Amino acid sequence: MKSVVAHINLQALKHNLRQVKKIAPDKEIVSVIKSNAYGHGVLPVARALEYSDYFAVARLSEAIYLRKQAIDKPIILLEGVYSLDEYRECFNLKLIPVIHSLQQFYSLKKFIAEQLTLLSFRNKDDIFQYWFKLDTGMHRLGLSADDVDCLLVKETDFFNFSSSSRHRLSAVISHFCCADEINNTYNQQQIEQYNQYYRKFINVFGYDPKILRKSMANSAAILSLPQAYFDLLRPGIMLYGVSPFAMAGEEENALHQQLLAVMTLSAPVIAIKHLNKGDCLGYGASWCCPEDMTIAIIAIGYGDGYPRHAQPGTPVLIKGVKLPLVGRVSMDMICVDLSNLKNTSIIINVGDSAILWGDGLPIEQIAQHASTIAYELLCQITSRVKFDYAFD
Description:
- The chain folds into two domains: about 10-250, TIM Barrel (Alpha-Beta Barrel); about 265-390, Lyase, Ornithine Decarboxylase, Chain A, domain 1 (Beta Barrel).
- It is built from twelve helices and 18 strands.
- A hairpin with a 7-residue loop joins strand 15 and strand 16 (about 335).
- It is of the alpha/beta class.
- The strands form three sheets. Strands 8-7-6-5-4-3-2-9 form an eight-stranded parallel beta sheet. A six-stranded antiparallel beta barrel has the order 10-13-16-15-14-17. Strands 11-12 form a two-stranded antiparallel sheet.
């Protein structure tokens, strides 16, 4: 009997990256591969996305793993680091930490003053780079307006770079909190706030805008806010062929329609049950047959990462037909109503494969039925699911 399989179409992944490059050919691409590449497997994804300009992860441990696997592309640490040892690790591995707090900045300053001059440079062109993150409205991570003003007033000497400087602030970034709501006016407010902050760095320190790069556009902004493209784009969820938008219909634009699903999750049918009207199904006996019915039992459940809170009616694709989930999702199994096949010649047998999301069944639909988001579904796939990587 087949097992639960997450088929990863690496060609679709490369295709999606090309779509981002096509819409903004003069921009650099920071491919976001944090959280095990959104559940797709970070190493094969990184290798497939070789034409990215940068990779971005959340934590130092993720970057260390990639370096150990011989991934040598520049890697951004979106959450940054704090200690001298961690900054030393960043230097040794050529990682680019993001500074989002004054605490991180002063740890960086101490590292540069006490450590960087003691370390051997590989060549005269080696420069320790770092990025700043500005809080323009997310109010999660990022330097506030007061933080920025503090740095501009008190740390002028630190930012007074010369040709001999071995460290450099090379990008200033921020993050949208409502880019998945296309008509939300807060998006433009954040862009304006970001530009105001950025101009302070240019005006006070005399940075060349070609050197101090800008980045704000995540997947949702890439799809809907071209005014936020700036120098570096940071596609995440869209690389995996998934919509970042919160409301159905907002993603319907030319670029999104050209994205391809990268993960297709499938599982085998392991039983066919013929039930009578009134028979109740699954834990809690919460769903009962409204008529005589035929039910397929599929070997997947929340133990594999399928959402436990998926409601009756959640679609499952078998032999090209969408069939509704019935009863509760259990650890190892779900049940599907085959009534939609009554007037067809299609017969479902034990051993047939059911698609839970992916090719022919957008994961966004499953997320809506489970009152969650596609990001969570992708990231919660468990270790007992077999991953199959191929260039389809």
